[in-house]
Amino acid sequence: MEAPFRSGLHHVTLITRRVQANVDFYVGFLGLSLVKRTGGFEDNTQLHLFYGDPEGSPGSLVTFFAWEDGASGRVGTGQVSEIAFAVPAATMGDWLTRALTHRVPVEGPAREMGEPVLRLKDPDGIIVKLVGRDLPDPRPQSVGPLRAITLLTDTPEETARFLTRFGYRPGPRQGSIQRLVSETDAVDVRDATGYVPGVPGTGTADHVALRAPDVAAVEAAEDALRAYNRSPTTVHDRKYFTSLYVREPGGALLELATDGPGFALDEPAGHLGETLFVPHAEPERAEDLKLLLPQFALPGQPRIPLRDLPFVHRFHVPETPDGSTLVLLHGTGGDEADLMPLARRAEPHATLLGVRGRAHEEGTTRWFRRIAGDVVDQADIAAEAEAFAAFTEGAVESYGLDLQTTTFLGLSNGANFIAAFMGLHPGLVRRAVLIRPMLVLDPPPAPDLSGVDVLMLVGAQDPFAARAPALAAWLNATGARLETRTLPAGHGLVPEDRAAIAEWLALQT
């Protein structure tokens, strides 16, 4: 088919596991602008960041899905293995010095395809090349547009031929790499026959997008690819551009993205990237998602540095904090952000510290392991409680928590763990909210919990409700001040939970 495209790269999308480190590298070190922050269009619980020049021009863009502390992928065939930005050739020495000063891993300079190249690694290990070009330097210490991407493929000839459909033409060859060039940039097709296939995850690329001038060009491409293509095509309205997804013969995901309408559609020029937009969400849900999505600070903005503590965690400070803190422990299968919407509604002025359990069963996150069925691993509970005690003490020191004004709130497995933690490490928890809990320690210890306030919320239709009285009896025996409320609920959360928690917290002093 004859290419109806404005030739060149539109953007590259990758995956990061540490959003703050990612922002610090791409904005703070490379000097790119954050031009858009959104929830994902496929999954609005996933943060999506767009970096580029200040106008968000196609061809300058690199974007990231944030999988906070997510599993690492493996770079292999069917994936982008390197991205490259153009920089003025005269600044290559400055960039080398800058990388060494900022302790960014760097190799080079070297020459590739006749161009001077520095090879860097971002915080996720993604290879980012700086390529010297005959460019002006209007923004010191800032990279220019995308110069190239490298595709690993075990079908190099087919991959290269497929790309020529989109305005690329054969360029120079160097070793196992065939370069394809457009008017503005290049795609390096690397013969990786016999290499391992790529595995999605953090530190890898999701897709690369090529430019299309308008929607008509995308639709024409869809018609042509439908007649030719060995894999299905899908067209999506991404608000800032319309896109068509297709896989090239080597398996890499390609996207055709229109140049418009652009990122100034919902933010004025000069203020791009300042507002978090959440697609396809009702207003109340959008506010919840702003808590669920990972938070970060741009270079120069105030920030609370996250400490290296034994548990993955997220810290959220409200606009008007009242000095209280809610430490949140999710239920089975949850994560550190799950309970933040509930906590915000119950106590809008509390600082929130969400924590992620470290036990896993068939990919499901928990706070301690089970041996079989309802039989829990007592040794694992003790070990995780020991680690959580270290986490709590570290949070007190690192974040200035006052345990006298801190409430530990847990749901299901998280509530069970809080109760066990109170028994194994008395003195650290002064207030606790236990939602749908049961006693898991066997045998339970006999600590002195006098002076500890506990709210226990039982679901009338909860299949595990029959196990709550044993926990209540134990808490009463330890001297805790226990209030138990039975709500019209099953094992999951209901609006009455929020109301009960808010009322109980308001009575605490």
Keywords:
single chain; 509 residues; alpha/beta; 2,3-Dihydroxybiphenyl 1,2-Dioxygenase, domain 1; Rossmann fold; nine-stranded mixed sheet; eight-stranded mixed sheet; 10 helices; 28 strands; elongated
Secondary-structure map with pairings?
Layout: E1 9-16, H1 19-29, E2 33-39, E3 47-52, E4 61-66, E5 79-88, H2 92-101, E6 106-112, E7 115-121, E8 127-133, E9 146-153, H3 156-163, E10 169-174, E11 177-181, E12 186-191, E13 205-212, H4 215-228, E14 234-237, E15 241-247, E16 253-261, E17 276-277, H5 283-292, E18 313-316, E19 325-329, H6 340-346, E20 351-355, E21 359-361, E22 364-366, E23 370-372, E24 375-376, H7 378-399, E25 406-411, H8 413-424, E26 431-435, E27 453-459, H9 468-478, E28 481-487, H10 495-507
Helix pairs in contact: 6-10, 7-8
Strand order of the largest sheet: 14-15-16-13-1-4-3-2-17
Distance from N terminus to C terminus (CA atoms, Å) equals: 73 Å
How much of the sequence lies in strands comes to 25-35%
How much helix, percentage-wise, in residues? Answer: 10-25%
Q: Uncertain runs with pLDDT below 50, 5 residues or more?
A: none
Oligomeric status: single chain
What is the fold-level CATH name, i.e. the topology of the largest domain? 2,3-Dihydroxybiphenyl 1,2-Dioxygenase, domain 1
> What is the second-level CATH architecture of the largest domain?
Roll
**Main sheet, how many strands, which sense, barrel?**
9 strands, mixed
Q: Taking all residues together, what is the mean pLDDT?
A: 94
> What radius of gyration results from the CA coordinates?
26 Å
Structural class: alpha/beta
Number of domains as seen in the coordinates: 2
**Which class of the largest domain in CATH terms?**
Alpha Beta
